[in-house]
Amino acid sequence: MSVDPMAYETQFFGFTPQTCMLRVYIAFQDYLFEMMLVVEGVMLKKLDGIPGCKISPSQIRKCTEKFLLFMKEHFDKLFAKMEEVLLQLVLNIPKNVLLPEDRVHEQYPYSKEEFQALQDELQQLQQQCRAEAAAEQALRAELEEQKAVKAELEKILQCFDGLENICREHGAGNFKESFALLTQSSKKLQNVLKDVEEKSKKMKQHDQLM
C-alpha cells in the first residue's frame, strides 16, 4: 500500500485513496476465498460419483489450500501493479489542478512569514479582546457597587429629611444647628463618662490598698 497521505485527493473525494484500494483488495480476496470453496464443493460432488475413488476430503482440502496460496501470491503481485496505476492515473489530482474551494489561495497568496504575522496579529487581538472584556466586567461590578452606595445614601438623606421635619414640627429650628448641638452634647457626655470611669478606677485601687 502507498504511504503517501494524498491529503488533497482526500479533500476532493471525501475518502483516502489508500482506503479505497484496501477495500477493493479485501473484496477481491473475499471473492477468491468464496470461489475456492465453491470449487472444492464441486470437486467433492464429482469425486463422490466416481466409484472406487480413494481421494479423501482432507486431501482435497490440502490441494485447495495450496492452490489458494498460489492464487493469492499471484493476485497480490497483480494487485500491487493495479494499485500503482489507479493511484497515479485515476485517484490522483495533478499538481497543476486547483480545487474550486482553494482558488481563493491563488487570488490572495500568502507566504509562511506573512501567514505567521497574521497569526501573531490575531493572537494579539484576541488578548486585547480578553483584556477589554475583563475591564468591562470590572467596570460593571464597580457600577453595581456605586448603585448600591447611592441607594444607601438616598436612604440616609431620606432619614435626615424625616428628622428635619420632626424638628420643625416640634419647634426645634434648623436641623443642622440642632444636629451640631447634639454632636457637642454627645462629646461632652463622652468626656464626662471618661472622667467617671477614671475616678471609679482610682476608687477601686484605693479600696484595694486599704
UniProtKB/TrEMBL annotation:
<dbReference type="GO" id="GO:0005634">
    <property type="term" value="C:nucleus"/>
</dbReference>
<dbReference type="GO" id="GO:0051382">
    <property type="term" value="P:kinetochore assembly"/>
</dbReference>
<dbReference type="InterPro" id="IPR008685">
    <property type="entry name" value="Centromere_Mis12"/>
</dbReference>
<keyword id="KW-0131">Cell cycle</keyword>
<dbReference type="GO" id="GO:0000070">
    <property type="term" value="P:mitotic sister chromatid segregation"/>
</dbReference>
<dbReference type="GO" id="GO:0000444">
    <property type="term" value="C:MIS12/MIND type complex"/>
</dbReference>
<feature type="coiled-coil region">
    <location>
        <begin position="108"/>
        <end position="209"/>
    </location>
</feature>
<dbReference type="Pfam" id="PF05859">
    <property type="entry name" value="Mis12"/>
</dbReference>
<keyword id="KW-0158">Chromosome</keyword>
<keyword id="KW-0175">Coiled coil</keyword>
<keyword id="KW-0137">Centromere</keyword>
<keyword id="KW-0995">Kinetochore</keyword>
<protein>
    <recommendedName>
        <fullName>Protein MIS12 homolog</fullName>
    </recommendedName>
</protein>
<keyword id="KW-0498">Mitosis</keyword>
<comment type="similarity">
    <text>Belongs to the mis12 family.</text>
</comment>
<keyword id="KW-0132">Cell division</keyword>
<dbReference type="GO" id="GO:0051301">
    <property type="term" value="P:cell division"/>
</dbReference>
